[in-house]
């Protein structure tokens, strides 16, 4: 089996990359989108789990970024989050839940009044139909309670597998993989799967991890996609998993330039322990293995 380190030490005392590890720019051994050369199924599983372990260190408090106090609130907020930001949803739902605190209340609401509240979220007419519709279904078919089964959740208006798994994983503690746009983008960049259908992605990635890891894995990947591994300009030079990423170099590799691409609030963002970009490089300025990597 090919070793992942060269035996040399970096300036930080970590193993230096092996020959052939990605080095940045045109000189890197792998081009964006290529699978690691000769990677076996066993190696893929190990690499995927190492990526998740490293992301768990970087985002130890990763969680749903939608505000909620009950399964009903999480369900509605997740439906509203389509085609908009979690921040916008969090700014909108307090007024919605203050006026309509229960499924029964929202089921009986005047659609025009709900539309006025949801207007900032975009697609407010369609979203109004969905949240009123799912509220009626909850009131009429489930006694005003959010069901804790996938097969029941996906029958509700506006609720698909992605929304259902958000609710199951975070309101009921039942493992699930949330395949949103960030998740799809990153797992394909990491060559965990070549699938494009969300259901097939869910199955392929789920097979790489214990079921108990699925919910936290989803949070780690989504947080990383929002903060570092962006769609258009990923911050490769500030990425903690650069040595494990076949797409390293698709984005900015210069540490200082990459640092400017990071998306976070002043003073950092909640639950993140992002090391400075230089911490991911060896003495020669090349990506070093993640902290704690054992090869």
Automatic annotation (TrEMBL):
Keywords, comma-separated and alphabetical: 4Fe-4S, DNA damage, DNA repair, DNA-binding, Glycosidase, Hydrolase, Iron, Iron-sulfur, Lyase, Metal-binding
- Low complexity bias (residue ranges): 7-33
UniProt domain HhH-GPD: residue ranges: 80-227
Q: Which residues bind [4Fe-4S] cluster?
A: 229, 236, 239, 245
Q: What class of enzyme is it?
A: lyase
Q: Where is this region: Disordered?
A: 1-42, 267-295
Query: Cofactor: bound how, per the entry note?
Result: Binds 1 [4Fe-4S] cluster.
Query: Which residue spans traverse the membrane?
Result: none
**Per the UniProt record, which EC number(s) apply here?**
4.2.99.18
Q: Which Gene3D superfamilies match?
A: Helix-hairpin-Helix base-excision DNA repair enzymes (C-terminal) (1.10.1670.10), Hypothetical protein, domain 2 (1.10.340.30)
Instruction: Look up the record and name the cofactor or cofactors this protein needs.
Output: [4Fe-4S] cluster
Q: Which reaction does it catalyse?
A: 2'-deoxyribonucleotide-(2'-deoxyribose 5'-phosphate)-2'-deoxyribonucleotide-DNA = a 3'-end 2'-deoxyribonucleotide-(2,3-dehydro-2,3-deoxyribose 5'-phosphate)-DNA + a 5'-end 5'-phospho-2'-deoxyribonucleoside-DNA + H(+)
- UniProt-listed NCBIfam families: nth
Q: Which family does it belong to?
A: Belongs to the Nth/MutY family.
- Biological role stated in the UniProt entry: DNA repair enzyme that has both DNA N-glycosylase activity and AP-lyase activity. The DNA N-glycosylase activity releases various damaged pyrimidines from DNA by cleaving the N-glycosidic bond, leaving an AP (apurinic/apyrimidinic) site. The AP-lyase activity cleaves the phosphodiester bond 3' to the AP site by a beta-elimination, leaving a 3'-terminal unsaturated sugar and a product with a terminal 5'-phosphate.
Record-given protein name = Endonuclease III
Q: What organism is listed for this UniProt entry?
A: Streptomyces glaucus
Q: Which gene encodes it?
A: nth
